[in-house]
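FORM 7B: Structural annotation worksheet

SECTION A. Query
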Amino acid sequence: MKQLRFYILFSLFFTLFGGGIYAQEQTKSESKHYADGPYLSYLPDGKIRVISTHTDGELKDVVLDGMPEGFALQVASHSDRHKFEVRLHPIRRQSWKTSKPSKLFVLSDPHGNLDCFVSVLRGNNIINENYEWVYGRNHLVVIGDVFDRGKDVLPIFWLIYKLEKEAEDAGGQLSFLLGNHEPMILAGDYRYMDKMYEELAKKLEVDYRNLFGPDTELGRWLATRNTMQIIGDDLFVHAGIGEDFLKENLTISQVNEEVSRGLFMTKQERNSLSPLTKFLYGNQGPIWYRGMVRNDEKYSPLHINILNRILEKYKVNRIIVGHTIFPDVRSFYNGKVIAVNVDNKKNFDAVLGRGILIEDEKTYVINDKGIFFAW
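SECTION B. Predicted structure
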């Protein structure tokens, strides 16, 4: 009887006080606002629309008659921790083949985590405290997947966009390759998207993918990103290429153009566009195929003889991929394939590998403090 009385009194206390505290915390959490944007789109009448949200909950939706002189976008991370300015620049597709620079720095799959992305770039003297390119005539490669999981998708895109021009002006280069999550979002597949983007789309009454459509600045930029690229004697691709890909007998230019052709389409539209488009966006295509780094039968693991034929066809010595997460940077086939995708947050916290640096004839695994170890 005493136990029952205690339980009733405890329940009443929790309802009046504990439950109230919980309700207040829940309301506070639900009302939290994040900075996002700016989303820049070009309207049919020649005007420019700029949308952004702020940590105070304010939504700014501005239409400009044209591009003002000296126009610059003010970009902030979701928490306002990172802020930088972006000026628009001419957009064009990079060459699918370039010479090897003195230093080639390679990362993959930032997935909306700007803290980790900035940390590794600063820690390896690629950008400074003002988010400016300081890597000179060297080359940075990001092998896809900025979309999904994190809350800073847009700031990472804008930072890459900004640094691309600064690198070019310095005689260097920044290359962003398409991953599988770029086409997923642009096809309307939002399985891994952070809730804050769903809420923004609902508030604007738009389909989220249209904020990156072909009538937007970042959409135009994404439409000209490569899927495969050769730098020196290394081939870069998000996921990998296997025997079925080899049988297609494709040039790298064909791959880049065809993937771009279907980028803003739904899965059904891509499948009906052409057999080649369907293949390139499928499990055996370059943005999904895992058989270079996984032995499970379902991934169609790649035989070393086929790998050697692929290397010979494209006249490269190695293939460097992202996509498949490993505890640290890994090499396969006696160094002929290198996988650079890791859990960025875990590896950041543990000061483990985050990518690679290719300098002269050596390859180094790097972390947020510089060189981790050499191969």
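SECTION C. Observations
The chain has three domains: 1-31, 36-86, 97-374. Confidence is low (pLDDT under 50) at residues 1-31.

SECTION D. Sign-off
Analyst initials: ____
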